[in-house]
């Protein structure tokens, strides 16, 4: 259409009579106008073709997504999944899984040596008898003994697989807290609405829902186009390297770097923000680093003490660290920035002040955004600490030890500073920050400063690191092309209601997915079952963990539809 206008314009430039000068002037004017319109129209057209429904919007919502292909069996399945009969069976399956106490302990020994791992054999047996079709139709590999990797090969080997993750292990229940549970922690008690017990919502619900979905699809005769993989680690609560660490390695070797289309693991579910209900699949995770600080100063008898000893100096440094926290900062890739855009665009009670700052920021240059004072982040931080730390590096001194005797000066005082690193920052920035603070204290007390990887000397402050995890790469969300985020969004809006909007979420904690960054670019930490009557995360990691059955059953329906939608998506 734009091209035709251009031709008309040039046709009109032809002149043949004595009014030629006037006509020429008019023609030039017209041509200019036409060419300009032509340019604008072409630009618009380019936008529209790339992105017909998302033009200009920062938080475009995809329509509820239903698979276009079906069979009688699949239609029957959809109905069956909403029946009481299925609900009852589902309760049995999840409650049975909760009754097997697959606790992972911080001090547990190697797999194959420490007998506390043996319970995972019982869990695998339970899954095998509860999901016979999954076990007869899918290939099952045991990775590092207890890692479970199921593969359901698709008919089109050119399509990248869908991976569904969950972990088999649960946080231990200390003996001292058993009494506080309304229903015993490994009872799987069903009270008519909730299933109670450790692991019921973190995250045996997700694991069992994925298996129920695949079992049902097999029963309905479904044959996937895209390979479906279930990958279940067994030590997520104590780092995940034995389970997820090994499973991810197998997947990268088998499918290549980023050879998997999408990963869905446990994570965030639904929040109510600014008068709007949002599903917030986690598309990013903050980083993590523990810095250990060791202050070495001369010992001696405490009856003739120096003005400051090791404990005093350590205390001074701790005070300095707490007095110099990190500023809130919203990197362009921080999912919370997208959530703010979503709020501004769709939520009825989004704060006006934030909206103004957001607009102002959108007009700024990239350089100002990166290096200027982040007024938007400072304002958003006022929403409370739980929000502020979604875009601020946190600092907490969590461990301290020093001194051996009441009448002896401490020779070695140690403390550990835990950091959760902001998206857009990295561990290096943390090292620089804490090194500068330690240098001030070292200088004042005439101590050597030994920053990272050095060897401790008698009068010194030494810094060392023993766990580093950089912030996760952010999963693509609102892109001009179709992405797995769109499939996930459309599936959620179809299962739950199109009044539910979908926005990017960010996790302050870490999941097993941090081993999977090379497996796929499209990682979602998403609790797929949403129980409308359950607020928050269902007391995970504490007493009275429980899961609403309706949310669990809807989670099964979600997985079934997601697998089918992924099969039809041209990704
Ligand atoms: C489901 O279980 C409830 C109570 O446990 C029972 O009353 C009901 O009849 C069962 N429904 C079906 C269809 O099995
Ligand atoms: C310590 O040394 C290791 C290996 O040489 C290196 O990768 C790491 O970056 C160093 N750490 C710091 C904080 O300099
Ligand atoms: C991803 O692959 C690179 C290159 O092989 C490797 O250095 C890195 O550790 C891997 N990342 C993860 C999270 O496994
Ligand atoms: Zn978990």
UniProtKB/TrEMBL annotation:
GO terms for cellular component: fungal-type vacuole lumen. Zn(2+) 2 binds at residues 167, 202, 265. It holds the Pfam family Peptidase_M20. GO terms for molecular function: metal ion binding; metallocarboxypeptidase activity. PROSITE patterns: ARGE_DAPE_CPG2_2. GO terms for biological process: proteolysis involved in protein catabolic process. Zn(2+) 1 binds at residues 202, 237, 541. The chain crosses the membrane at residues 21-40. Residues 283-445 form the Peptidase M20 dimerisation domain. Keywords: Hydrolase, Membrane, Metal-binding, Protease, Transmembrane, Transmembrane helix, Zinc. PANTHER family: N-FATTY-ACYL-AMINO ACID SYNTHASE/HYDROLASE PM20D1, N-FATTY-ACYL-AMINO ACID SYNTHASE_HYDROLASE PM20D1. Belongs to the peptidase M20A family. This is Peptidase M20 dimerisation domain-containing protein. The lineage of its organism: Eukaryota, Fungi, Dikarya, Ascomycota, Pezizomycotina.
């Amino acid at each position: 259409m734009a091209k035709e206008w251009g031709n008309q314009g040039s046709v009109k430039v032809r002149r043949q009579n004595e009014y030629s000068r006037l006509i020429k002037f008019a023609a030039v004017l017209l041509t200019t106008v036409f060419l300009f319109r032509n340019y604008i129209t072409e630009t618009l057209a380019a936008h529209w073709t790339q992105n017909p429904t998302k033009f200009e919007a920062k938080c475009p919502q995809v329509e509820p997504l239903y698979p276009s292909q079906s069979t009688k069996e699949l239609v029957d399945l959809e109905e069956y999944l909403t029946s009481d009969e299925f609900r009852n069976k589902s309760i049995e399956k999840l409650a049975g899984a909760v009754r097997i106490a697959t606790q992972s302990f911080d001090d547990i020994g190697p797999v194959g040596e420490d007998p506390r791992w043996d319970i995972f054999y019982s869990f695998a047996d339970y899954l095998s008898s509860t999901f016979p079709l999954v076990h007869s139709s899918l290939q099952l590999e045991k990775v590092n003994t207890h890692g479970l990797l199921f593969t359901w090969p698709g008919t089109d080997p050119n399509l990248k697989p869908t991976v569904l993750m969950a972990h088999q292990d649960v946080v231990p229940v200390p003996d001292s807290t058993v009494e506080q549970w309304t229903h015993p922690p490994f009872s799987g008690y069903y009270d008519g609405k909730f299933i109670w017990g450790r692991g019921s919502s973190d995250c045996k619900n997700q694991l069992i829902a994925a298996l129920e979905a695949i079992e049902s699809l097999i029963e309905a005769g479904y044959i996937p186009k895209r390979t479906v993989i279930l990958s279940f680690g067994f030590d997520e609560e104590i780092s995940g390297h034995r389970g997820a660490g090994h499973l991810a390695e197998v997947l990268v070797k088998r499918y290549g770097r980023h050879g998997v289309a999408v990963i869905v693991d446990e994570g965030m579910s639904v929040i109510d923000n600014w008068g709007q209900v949002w599903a917030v699949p986690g598309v990013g995770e903050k980083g993590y680093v523990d810095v250990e600080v060791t202050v070495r100063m001369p010992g001696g008898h405490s009856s003739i003490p120096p003005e400051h000893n090791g404990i005093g100096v350590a205390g001074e440094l701790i005070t300095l660290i707490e007095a110099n926290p990190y500023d809130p900062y919203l990197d362009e890739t921080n999912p919370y920035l997208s959530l703010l855009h979503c709020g501004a665009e769709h939520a009825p009670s989004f704060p006006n002040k934030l909206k103004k700052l957001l607009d102002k920021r959108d007009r700024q240059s990239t350089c100002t955004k990166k290096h200027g004072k982040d007024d938007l982040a400072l304002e958003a931080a006022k929403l409370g600490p739980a929000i502020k730390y979604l875009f601020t590096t946190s600092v907490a001194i969590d461990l301290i030890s020093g001194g051996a005797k009441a009448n002896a000066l401490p020779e070695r005082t140690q403390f550990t500073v835990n950091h959760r690193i902001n998206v857009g920052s990295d561990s290096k920035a943390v090292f620089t920050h804490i090194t500068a603070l330690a240098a001030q204290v070292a200088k004042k007390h005439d101590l050597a400063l030994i920053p990272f990887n050095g060897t401790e000397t008698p009068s010194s402050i030494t810094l060392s690191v023993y766990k580093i995890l950089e912030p996760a790469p952010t999963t693509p969300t609102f892109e001009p092309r179709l992405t797995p985020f769109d499939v996930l969004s459309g599936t959620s809006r179809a299962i739950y209601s199109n009044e539910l909007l979908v926005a990017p979420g960010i996790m302050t904690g870490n999941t097993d997915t941090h081993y999977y960054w090379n497996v796929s670019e499209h990682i979602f930490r998403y609790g797929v079952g949403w129980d409308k009557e359950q607020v928050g995360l269902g007391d995970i990691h504490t007493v009275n963990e429980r899961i609403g059955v309706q949310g669990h059953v809807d989670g099964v329906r979600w997985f079934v539809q997601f697998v089918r939608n992924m099969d039809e998506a041209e990704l």
